[in-house]
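Weekly structure sync, notes
Attendees: PL (lead), two postdocs, one rotation student
Agenda item 3: pending single-chain targets
PL asked that the sequence for the first pending target be pasted directly into the notes so everyone works from the same version. It is reproduced below exactly as submitted, 464 residues in total.
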Amino acid sequence: MSLLKTVARVALFALPLMLSAVAGAEPELKAAWVVLGVNGLAVARVVSADGNCPKILIDGKSYPMSLRARAETIALRPTASAPSDSKPSSFPFSTCEYPLPDKVTRASVGSHNLPVPKTSPQRIVVIGDSGCRMKQADDIWQDCADPNAWPFAQIARAAASFNPDLVVHVGDYHYRENPCLAGGCQGSPWGYGWDAWDADLFEPAAPLFAAAPWVVLRGNHETCARAGQGWFRFLDPRPYSAARSCDDPASDNAADYSEPYAVPIGPDAQIIVFDSANAGRSPLRESNVQDAALFAKYRAQFRRVAELAGKPGILSMFADHHPLLGLSPQDDNSVLGGNPALLSVLLADYGPAYYPPGIQVALHGHTHLFEAISFASDHPAVFLSGNAGDKLDSPLPDPLPADAAPAAGVVVERITQSNSFGFLLLDRLEEGWAFKAYRRDGSLMATCLLKQGKIACDRTGSIN
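Predicted structure, written out during the meeting:
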């Protein structure tokens, strides 16, 4: 064979490989999503099974994504569960990210199209408390394979069908803490590694991740002693670091608290995100030696909230996981009010108003109900959307006990509630916002209109 023919034959066989190298092989992605952080900065993230971070295509230009957290198995650390019911956290895939520029119109990684932020979202989905509970301490084992017992995938599909511009998750993504040895959850992934995170969040929420960018709040299930490692790898919008990874318990005092920030939702509104994940259940006393440091930390953070909410002409929605002025049903048919630790700090600076000036509405989860509360006293309207999948709470007594109040001096005027699975949808109107509660199948439960910090719902009382 002549030299010319040999070269031609080698080139013929090499051509497909050369073209593949030029085009780039399709990256193997386990998940892809976009989170919004401080000042609305959008960050594209993927979980990559390729070992290397892929390239992202933004408005026709290609850029290499950066490694956020490498694949690794992290040694067992103290957890909220007994050591015998815990294990090292395995993250076999890399998490990669890239900040999206302002006014981006298109972004994709391989064949995965990513949702890009809109400067003035018109429709916002709010969900919370979405994972499937497997917890030895509570002896609660949801049937994660039964969509009637754990309907988060159905809720994500229904919410995505409304074509939202933004998704707000008010915390508690991960609930599969202990091994399930019997019943419908038997064999489910558990622990705090990728497999449990994928089963509880990324796989069922895939349609909603594809529909819109997310604003993510941290719940008590994402503290360092629980699923904090996954929280920082996957969801926290700030840069990743060893000190804020929950890998080393020595750093928990810093990693369990994050500074508040605002996400603009148009020129006239914003969501102020507050990390209440590690808020306790007892009031904090500034004069108490054991409480003083945490009291000072939360006080500084609420003063930052006051600065953010002080912008003139801006409707501020305060969002954290624990309800400040919500109501929670108890087994004895009594009702508990808002989070005592946070309220004790707010009371010291803002008195019986509790909230800093400028807050007109609050978004929460933690209590596994839908609640819409309007007050006769001068307090912001409250919405709870903690009914996206985890075991539901019993409904509040209807009517409420005469002495039921979220906090001293707070007077409930109207409350609309449901302990049905579902989600909340915010629609921007010319005269304000409509807050619509939907069931798991996308059917409407109630509509509430927000005007000047007050809400009026088309139904009052229980709507199950």
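Discussion points:
- The helical segments are 3-23, 152-160, 194-202, 206-211, 228-235, 252-255, 289-309, 340-350.
- The longest strand covers residues 29-36.
Action: rotation student to compare against the earlier draft before next sync.
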